[in-house]
Amino acid sequence: MYVTMKTILDDANQHYYGVISASVINLELVRGAIRAAQEENAPIIINIGQGQMSKHGDGEIISKIVRTLAARATVPVALNLDHGKDYERITHAFRHQFSSIMIDASEYPLEENIRRTKDVVTLCHSQNVTVEGEIGFIGQAANADDEKFDLYTRVEDAVHFFEATGVDALAIAVGTAHGKYPTNRAPKIDFDRISQIKQATQKPLVLHGGSDSGEENIRQAVICGINKINVCTDTFVNCKEGLRTMLQETPDIDFMSMMINMENKAKETLQDYIRISGSSGKAKNFR
Known binder of ligand: residue 26? Predict the structure, then answer.
């Protein structure tokens, strides 16, 4: 079933669990994500980033794929534009029936971020489309920078942001980063900050950079109040490694088998994350 992201996250917020938001760029990854959710009887959010959409995964086509497969599924499925920065891309996703838009104006000063986010909220809420915002700095894991505590999301800013914009969910900066971490390095997540923001807002909170963050870190983040966990890099890496192994072992493998392998690797990866997030079995809440 195709639903708004707000429908999924409000239930997760009410019942204290996390939901996986799986990045996709093609049919195989969408199928793998929805199959993972079906087998775990879990809600799922399908993510496609603005950059991914401009380079490969055309938003109109991805939307049709997701909505078609969601209509066949018995679990809730939402489609979210991730890190929407250009208004043209945001309105493109809006026109093509994405059920959620993430407006990322976090590079701007807080009040300008609020102004830009509020404009998107006004547009999207007119058609019952969910909006996710972001405040704070979420960098790249590969940079292995020291923690920039001054760029973490402040509790008072989160409260003000929710009140001023009317967003449905908020991505917060608490120590994770996008991408894959260097060997033997895991993020140091500020769990106290998550708890404080949750207590002050009582709203759905989002953790970007879920890949490679560590099972216990994700479990604890959910306990502290995270409701949406973005997963991209681990899915892409596992699919790539699966294809590499297949080609090494069977060089003359047919192309269709390679695509099936990609889908299966995506499913396996996302099933693991669904179990860690606590959303297995939660699709029953929507029936």
Answer: no
Residue 100 is assigned to a ligand binding site: no
Of 35-44, 100-109, 172-181, the one with minimum mean pLDDT is: 172-181
Query: What are the tens digits of pLDDT across the range 233-245?
Result: 999 999 999 999 9
3-state secondary structure of 53: helix
Residues 259, 28 contacting (CB under 8 angstroms) = yes
Q: Which two tokens stand for residue 183?
A: 């060997």
Residue with tokens 């209509």: 71
CB 147 within 8 A of CB 23: no
Q: How many Å apart are CA 250 and CA 244, to the nearest integer?
A: 10
Tell me if 231 is assigned to a ligand binding site. yes
For 50, residues 6+ apart whose C-beta sits below 8 A from its C-beta are: 81, 82, 83, 84, 85, 86, 89
- Report phi then psi at 231, rounded to 5: -130, 120
Beta strands in 139-271 (DSSP E): 169-172, 205-207, 226-231
Nearest CA among 221, 261, 260 for reference residue 12: 221
206 is in an annotated binding site: no
The residues assigned a catalytic role are 82
CB 3 within 8 A of CB 73: no
Q: What is the tens place of the pLDDT at every residue in 203-254?
A: 999 999 887 778 999 999 999 999 999 999 999 999 999 999 999 999 999 9
- Sheet strands (E) in the chain: 19-23, 44-49, 77-84, 100-103, 130-135, 169-172, 205-207, 226-231
Residue 84 is labelled as binding a ligand: no
Task: Classify domain 5-286 by CATH number.
Answer: 3.20.20.70
Domain boundaries, the chain: 5-286
